[in-house]
């Protein structure tokens, strides 16, 4: 089974449309909600893990785009500047999913597992040298 984490941005004109429910019914997809920021009569931002076959996932993403939803893929969006990072570990303490973690207590190197990231942005806020980044749309 294929799954991918995506950030969906709904402009206010379509924020009340059941588009996520549509793709589940049309393309046999399921989803886990990772984050939701929904404001009445304003845009909504949903971070979801969408699960299904690869083909159905692509069809579902196309359907959302055709209906005006902006889509970003979390795994491709979170970035660490390896030149700047000095493995202080501040981001490890705030990361809710262990996407940032220390596995080797000897080196204390901070590992980044992009596939675990939910684009919460906490690491971006706490990093003292601004090594972590997410695009503006997050
Ligand atoms: S807070 Fe910044 S410098 Fe420290 S380990 Fe995390 S990314 Fe590296
Ligand atoms: S944005 Fe940073 S703190 Fe949040 S899940 Fe991703 S790596 Fe962890």
Please summarize what this structure is.
With 138 residues, this protein is of the alpha+beta class. Helix content is 26%, strand content 30%.
How do the helices and strands line up, and which of them pair or pack?
Layout: E1 2-10, H1 19-27, E2 30-38, E3 44-52, H2 54-66, E4 70-73, H3 74-77, E5 79-80, H4 90-94, E6 100-102, E7 110-112, H5 122-126, E8 132-133
Antiparallel strand pairs: 1-3, 1-4, 2-3, 5-8, 6-7
Helix pairs in contact: 1-2
Bound molecules: iron/sulfur cluster (SF4) (2 copies).
One iron/sulfur cluster (SF4) binds next to helix 4.
Descriptive account of the structure:
Helix 1 runs antiparallel to helix 2 (54-66). The protein has five helices and eight strands, in the order E-H-E-E-H-E-H-E-H-E-E-H-E. Strand 2 (30-38) and strand 3 (44-52) form a beta hairpin. The mean pLDDT is 93. The strands form three sheets. It has a four-stranded antiparallel sheet. Strands 5-8 form a two-stranded antiparallel ribbon. The protein has a two-stranded antiparallel sheet with strand order 6-7. It is of the alpha+beta class and 138 residues long. It has two domains: 2-75, Alpha-Beta Plaits; 78-133, Alpha-Beta Plaits (2-Layer Sandwich). The structure holds iron/sulfur cluster (2 copies). The site of one iron/sulfur cluster has 14 residues, from helix 5.
């Amino acid at each position: 089974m294929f799954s991918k984490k995506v950030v969906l941005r709904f402009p206010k004109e379509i924020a009340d449309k059941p588009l996520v429910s549509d793709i589940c019914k049309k393309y046999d997809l399921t989803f886990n909600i990772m984050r939701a920021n929904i404001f009445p009569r304003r845009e909504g931002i949903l971070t979801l893990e969408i699960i299904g076959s690869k083909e159905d996932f692509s069809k579902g993403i196309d359907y959302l785009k055709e209906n005006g939803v902006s889509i970003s893929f979390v795994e491709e969006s979170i970035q660490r500047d390896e030149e700047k990072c000095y493995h202080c570990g501040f981001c490890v303490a705030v990361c809710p999913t262990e996407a940032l973690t220390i596995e080797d207590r000897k080196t204390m190197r901070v590992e980044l597992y992009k596939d675990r990231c939910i684009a919460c942005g906490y690491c971006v806020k706490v990093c003292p040298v601004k090594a972590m980044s997410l695009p503006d749309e997050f």
